[in-house]
């Protein structure tokens, strides 16, 4: 499938999805959001893809936010529809069964920080900058930043970032748990690919069930989430991958998972 604002490449079982509007620092307009939703559907349906790396084109930005030029003259109703589009596409990405690693090559601001937070794992470079600058534009975040940020870094830190609109360094983002790793700029893709490859060698049903357990379990009360974990743990024992994984351990060899 061809898109105007994205490109999708495959390297073995890893997909590289690039948001490609470098002149606007990959800002998210309705077209990017719509195409991103389509790309998630394509990736979900492609059995060869196990892990996704999401990045921004160019040297400067992952994504510098929702497109301010596109939003500037929106009515309240239009902005509501735009916000809901962003929320729904990000939720689709978050709930996609395959793990997504955000390779954050520069600015991740506003909608860009919100997009990174909808990914499973975030890797930044020493140059990356994070923030929710929206109150400086007279608005709140609109793609679930007010919800994912406190869940990720805690209420107090989230409120400080939201109220001040401060831009923070990758080192500070790492310190507060907003990113998993900070690496040298020229190492970013290799680091993400190496992590993606390690994930891709594991039992993919189990990986996907871990993702569901964390994302869905955190939205449940603890008794329900424990019951959910017990169910998915049991479900693994109905797969060939469980038999293979445990047999390989006992036979002291590498497992050959088939994703069934
Ligand atoms: N929307 C639209 N265009 C953007 C953009 C955005 N969010 N961010 C950058 N651009 C454009 C600039 O307008 C500029 O375009 P021109 O060359 O045509 O003038 C181009 O990208 C390069 O940007 P700068 O010249 O500004 O680059 P810089 O290095 O001087 O500054 C920056 C980089 C600090 C990221 C600055 O561009 C900036 O502050 N961008 C806006 C960040 C922001 O406020 N994001 C939040 C948006 S609101 C939001 O996301 C709401 C939501 O939750 C739904």
Automatic annotation (TrEMBL):
EC code(s) of this entry: 4.2.1.150
Keyword Lyase set for record: yes
GO BP terms, alphabetized: fatty acid beta-oxidation
Functional pathway: Lipid metabolism; butanoate metabolism
UniProt xrefs under Pfam families: ECH_1
Quaternary organization: Homotetramer.
PANTHER family associated with the record: ENOYL-COA HYDRATASE, MITOCHONDRIAL, ENOYL-COA HYDRATASE-RELATED
Family from the record: Belongs to the enoyl-CoA hydratase/isomerase family.
Name this polypeptide is given: short-chain-enoyl-CoA hydratase
Organism placement in taxonomy: Bacteria, Bacillati, Bacillota, Clostridia, Eubacteriales
